[in-house]
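re: ur question from earlier - yeah i can do the single chain one, its not a big deal. heres the input i used so u can compare w yours
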Amino acid sequence: MVETGRIRVAKDKADLVKSLISTDGTTGPFQTYVDIIVFAAALGAKHNKRVPLGEISKREPSPIPQEQFIVRGYDTVINLIAITETKNLSVLSFSENQSREKRNHIFEEYANGGLEILQAEFRGAVDYSERILLILSSERIEHEKDSEFDLSKFLA
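and the output i got, formated as tokens:
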């Protein structure tokens, strides 16, 4: 059951999420749990990896109030992922509580999928920041390759 107004993290990903945050004495690449979850959801959506949460983390990180996402402007990401998944604008309805729950549920599952991708990428890594930069660089290079105009196909 979706916890109304809160974004949840799967229990089996809780340690990964904690290791990605920058706290006293650690050098994680993200400032907040919210930043981590949004990054993971975007990564999961990019790779079309939506994974059910299973058991939910109750402590560190506990379910995150949706207001924290809204304050940072990340509610737009939640909405865009929901529209892309459902291909239906009615998922944005603010008059129905079920719509918000559906948006959150979709977002949580993409975040969980993105966290699975990160787990695989981080296997054996010491510096998560460096590995994230490599992931982003490879995505950029792949995008640039796809967007290059190749005149040779017209010359044949």
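Helices lie at 14-19, 33-46, 66-71, 75-86, 97-122, 128-147, 152-155. not sure if urs matches, ping me
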